[in-house]
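Deviations from the work plan: none for this task. Representative record:
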Amino acid sequence: MTAKLAEALAGIVGPEHVSVEPGALAAHARDATPLFDAMPQAVVHPGSAEEVAAILRYATAEGVPVVPRGAGSNLCAGTVPLHGGIVLVLTRLNRILEVSRDELLARVQTGVPTAKLAAAAAEAGLLYAPDPGSHTVSTVGGNVATCAGGLRGLKYGVTRNYVLGLEAVLPTGEIIRTGGRLWKDVAGYDLTRLLTGSEGTLAVITEATVALLPKPETTGTGVAYFPTLADASRAVTAVIASGIVPATLEFLDQKCIAAVEEFAGLGLRADAGALLLFGDDGQAATVEGNLARIEGICADEGALEVTLAEDVARADALLAARRCSLPALSRLGSLTVLEDVSVPRHRLAGMVARIDEIAAAHDLLIATFGHAGDGNLHPTCVLDPDDGEAIERCHQAFAEIFSAAIALDGTITGEHGVGAAKLPYLEERLGGDQVALLGRIKRAFDPAGILNPGKLGS
Amino acid sequence: MTAKLAEALAGIVGPEHVSVEPGALAAHARDATPLFDAMPQAVVHPGSAEEVAAILRYATAEGVPVVPRGAGSNLCAGTVPLHGGIVLVLTRLNRILEVSRDELLARVQTGVPTAKLAAAAAEAGLLYAPDPGSHTVSTVGGNVATCAGGLRGLKYGVTRNYVLGLEAVLPTGEIIRTGGRLWKDVAGYDLTRLLTGSEGTLAVITEATVALLPKPETTGTGVAYFPTLADASRAVTAVIASGIVPATLEFLDQKCIAAVEEFAGLGLRADAGALLLFGDDGQAATVEGNLARIEGICADEGALEVTLAEDVARADALLAARRCSLPALSRLGSLTVLEDVSVPRHRLAGMVARIDEIAAAHDLLIATFGHAGDGNLHPTCVLDPDDGEAIERCHQAFAEIFSAAIALDGTITGEHGVGAAKLPYLEERLGGDQVALLGRIKRAFDPAGILNPGKLGS
């Protein structure tokens, strides 16, 4: 079976781009999600949309599962080949096809790393706004497939807001082009947005046209420490109510502050109950004015201390504090389960309080950081991987956390995706009628059910 | 048949909300699109999502077409009941359920007029950014169903960018809720965006949660006259390339300027080949700086004259000039066919040149105005409704205009929708494989094919 499959794939992409070696298969049995793995039968690296189409036609004809994958930095087991078959790695599609300053857009193959697109845009004096936490490793295709978010979601939106058009290959082998170079285009159902966030279950995305913005003139950053997360959350609400929508409003809870300070020694104030990192970008006078107002609001809401970064180096250090939350926490135990719930912004503190209660009830260390501006939290459980009983408690705790988020008008995933990890909770969020509809949409694209089975739409 | 239908509907919504009178049927046989009409069998005004669900269950069981409709201001025959059946008018669902300043959102029933939502937001110090040309009559539901655009598309995006969540009734009667009060939510396929722009062919949208923005501190407006539209288009490209994304960048061609001046006597300069209306909003210093830079760029690109509106009254007069383009043109003949193509921004002048060539070749008066910032043009043909031969030439001319737009990487509709009027051209834009996929998606929602037949997905 494997030999026949390898031969068929080699006939399409050339033998040098197919691997059935146990080491290569094992490397593609998992992504960045702990506790999920499954061996594929073959790993293939196509070099064009046409090759992807030929692979998918073969897979549909033979009933072989295909799991598309970029960098494999997925955090919800969205690229784990649960049912075996082919892992289709898109990293050879790594060309930036154009960056247009006149049109404020870029066209890239989807295997391009996000950071490479961002750098190419910056070189043209432009900004690619989406900046998921994994942007140094993730690919544009993975970002589109998961509708990746990031640190600038409130002001700038998420990946969805920047995708203008896609080239995608249907599981039955047709290559379609959706949208294009246009800011307004309503010809047909919005397949561009339907494919964005479809987690590799409807089509394989091979090219994306994305909107860019003029690069903001300046950026400013500040940090505020609060006695409790409730104080920080109140400050966030007050900032928004004052008419400011800042580019960055990130928080760390007390456990994260301690871990980050221990890890990176950035001089964070470890006695605080919460840290709020705020930033804005735009014209210098506006940024200066907004940061001063945020500083004042934080003080009014009981901040222990508020500091504006005096220079870019200090601002970068503060952003590094937020970005290194996960590695810092990872050091506390060798198994780190990072989750991703989202609630209405003003319910942030209530949600963290529920997370803390649930963690205590299950005797677990769960620290929480995330995007205060858009209510997107990353509760992170640190564990001993050999403690099966603790892992069981962790699963139970996260099931309760998902329910708690839903009860607060929230959702089970803000930006990571559903994947395999959260599929069991999807019906609680969407209801049975909507989940059934997702299945019918899935079958409209993928009648043979070969594309990323066991995930969305299954 | 009609009696049975009326009785069934009356049983659901009460007899006072069902009409089968010839006058009422005739009033719902057409929308704002000329040259399309078809009589329904009944007009029904449901008062709740549950009543909508009961109507749709009945329609699916009996195979009766249902055409959802808000204000009927559609411009592509999207709400004309081509196959008869029921016109489902949603204007009784006219409650604004909440406007939240803390959460920057509003939740409304979909029969609420767009202008009423905008006014409620303004009262709370907030901005509902989408502002389609028909906003004084159109409903939020119609805006969502068509993904309506408007004058602020470049800086602020279109309706899609503001829809956070929907309540919708499937043709088979299930009531689903998509998205919610969240800026980040990737649980499931993006049904919120799939329904946005689905033109009443997939589900009936009964409630929408929309994002609001803090109201900009100030607004400024200016006008520039150019010898030719090519000069104006070059200025638009230069503005964008300079790093400014202004809130408004509208244009009128020479024929529109003349018609508007004749109609409204606003003191427009009738010797110019093109008028560019520009505006921005935000903090006062930023707006002032941006308008001054745009003024300078227009002068550099050969403007005959550039004026900044010295006060709000003058700015409103200028905006009125743009907004009255359609009524002004309508006076030139009693039949006005308003179209809606979109091209990459820098191809605006090329597209207008093609439109002018095509109009001349067919001996037609086609004037063009539109959104220069996002490349969305509204070529408008003015005709004598009794001149069947001219109407035939008009159809032929628009078919050529759609082909020309596609050839310039553009699309057949930027913001009005496909409806019945442009369905014949959809395959030229999307290709046969994509049109077939739309049909499969349609059937995943509407197995009996009762919802707005003869439109998207048919």
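Chain A touches chain B through 89 residues (CB under 8 Å).
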